[in-house]
Specification:
2 copies of one chain form a homodimer. Chain A has 320 residues and is of the alpha+beta class. Chain A has 2 domains: 9-103, 2-Layer Sandwich (Phosphorylase Kinase, domain 1); 115-317, Alpha-Beta Complex (Aminoglycoside 3'-phosphotransferase, Chain: A, domain 2), CATH 3.90.1200.10. Chain A contains 11 helices and 9 strands. Chain A has helices at 9-16, 62-74, 115-131, 145-155, 159-162, 166-180, 220-231, 241-254, 259-263, 265-286, 299-309, and strands spanning 24-30, 36-43, 46-53, 92-94, 97-103, 187-190, 199-202, 205-209, 216-219. In chain A, the strands form 3 sheets. In chain A, strands 1-2-3-5-4 form a 5-stranded antiparallel β-sheet, covered by helices on one side. Chain A has a two-stranded antiparallel ribbon with strand order 6-9. In chain A, strand 2 and strand 3 form a beta hairpin. In chain A, helix 3 (115-131) packs antiparallel against helix 7, helix 7 packs antiparallel against helix 8 and helix 10 (265-286) runs antiparallel to helix 11 (299-309). The model of chain A has no long low-confidence stretch (mean pLDDT 94).
Chain lengths: 320, 320
């Protein structure tokens, strides 16, 4: 849940004067998103989402994100769209922060995804990869293999306070992945954070994708590996191969994986697990003891990593 | 900000089946309210607020609150109305908690109220008191003078860790108020928590009142004293008599204060300040050090109490 910055009615009225979206009738802070402050706006023109970008999102990256979602929408993908101001700007300034208004997207994220949901997200991910193919901007993935060692330097020394032996496990895995990471895979725009809370459904149909603030240019198959980690494990941390098969088959119906992408899937899955293990570990160690807001459990990804380490081929994920 | 309980899409669908408000299209946790979990619902019938009552609200009090807001609305006051289920129930059960759906109320709360806003709230408060006059249910005010000593017993011993001498100040004030508290004032339904975040405005017009979860049967003039504390001080803790005069005059145009109510206004204001000083002190001392959610500053009400202690008559508040 997140509202880091309160916005006064006066500041908001002044901000909205630059937009052609009617008169403000109500606004409420929304308990969603961990990187930004979000508000629901009701105006005489309808409902909108106002986002204030807090310091975890780099201001220089915002044009990439905003142009990307407009590009994707123009190619038929559904995602919240920035509302441009009277002078055509997608990005404004509110309470000394970059701020943007978005269209309101219906749909709900699924707390307990079933096989059909996993299939639907595989299809949506492949469509995202195809729609992004001709996007003109690039953004480096700071959270891919080249970025992991600095995260480990930050948190590795204290890893064993979370779980005995965790530091050593991460250290070995990191050295191995730095050596074996595949570097010649098909590249393009990836979402890089397509967890269940970023995919909206109406029934079993995907109604849209949200939260592109980790999107970047990287190996498309790495995005698939992130989704396998995020969607296809059960609450007891066991891998559900039926869900994995559904996700992969749906993906491949829209975009075929190359033999090389398939061959390196276990490595990509290990990397994806390590990436979330590391960032969660940093967040976990940064939060003061006794805080009311609990960060996400890093050990969930330790257990997923252990599963991937035992896998030999893409068959273990459900690719026939 | 508050979402204490997450609600799954499956649980919510099942809950909504008992209501005639169309198909669910979206729901989002709202960062408002400190006692309950609140969600915005979008259905094919429009926008609604879903409230889950957490343990700070006593389940046996809910019929009082829900019947009261229906009673007030029937007499022309605007406040969010409970949506009754197909079988006529205002109260349901969701994630093992009492839960209710309310109509969506437009308007915004004012972060920096001006004189006109203070006048408008005085008028709204008087209308609330008149509309509540024939309400048939009663609820004791657990946070009036009879309830303060037990709060002091909880927190008084640690008061000086917040501010040196605070324990002694509260102890003397409490003894004095227990002795001098006026007990023969006109009684009725009071809101008891009509702070700026519970009054919605569209422009300088009140669009509605919210959050009746402290409402009870008590002295009407005590509600006026709570509002003087909540609306008529500046950020530097000085009393703004122009705002006080505007609030009191507007109130008295709709409901005349009796000479006795006017005479005891300084005592009522001291009591109101002590009540919020005590509850904030308890909350302050209960929060673990380093927590991300900061409770409200109890010393704001210590300073207001100091102001009231120096006052001799209602003239000091702006009553001519």
């Amino acid at each position: 849940m997140a509202v880091y910055t309160d916005v006064s009615d006066e500041d908001l009225h002044q901000f909205l004067a630059a937009y052609d979206i009617g008169t403000l009738l109500a606004y409420k802070g929304i308990a969603e998103g961990v990187e930004n402050s979000n508000f629901l706006l009701h105006t005489t023109a309808g409902f909108f989402i106002l986002t204030l970008y807090e310091k975890r999102v780099a201001a220089e990256d915002l044009p990439f994100f905003l142009n990307l979602i407009e590009h994707l929408a123009a190619r038929g993908l559904t995602c919240p769209q920035p509302v441009r101001s009277r002078v055509g700007e997608a990005l404004g300034q509110l309470v000394s922060r970059p701020a943007a208004i978005f269209t309101f997207l219906d749909g709900m994220w699924i707390r307990r995804p079933n096989v059909a949901h996993c299939g639907a997200v595989g299809d949506a991910l492949a469509k995202l990869h195809l729609a992004g193919a001709d996007f003109g901007m690039r953004r480096r993935n700071r959270l891919s293999v080249a970025g992991w060692r600095s995260l480990f330097d930050t948190a590795g020394g204290r890893a064993d306070t979370v779980y005995k032996g965790l530091g050593q496990t991460i250290s070995c895995e990191l050295s191995l992945l730095e050596h074996e990471w595949p570097r010649d895979l098909p590249q393009g725009v990836i979402h890089a954070d397509l967890f269940p809370d970023n995919v909206f459904f109406l029934g079993e149909r995907v109604s849209g994708l949200i939260d592109f603030y980790f999107a970047c240019t990287d190996a498309l198959a790495y995005d698939v590996a992130i989704c396998l980690n995020a969607w296809c494990f059960e609450p007891d941390h066991s891998y559900n191969i039926t869900k994995g098969r559904a996700l992969l088959r749906s993906y491949m119906r829209t975009r075929k994986l190359t033999p090389h992408e398939i061959a390196v899937m276990p490595t990509l899955c290990r990397g994806a697990a390590l990436r979330f293990l590391l960032t969660r570990l940093v967040d976990w160690l940064e939060v003061p003891p006794g805080a009311l807001v609990k960060p996400k459990d890093p050990l969930e990804y330790y257990r997923k990593l252990r599963f991937h380490q035992a896998n030999m081929s893409a068959r273990d994920y459900g690719i026939d």
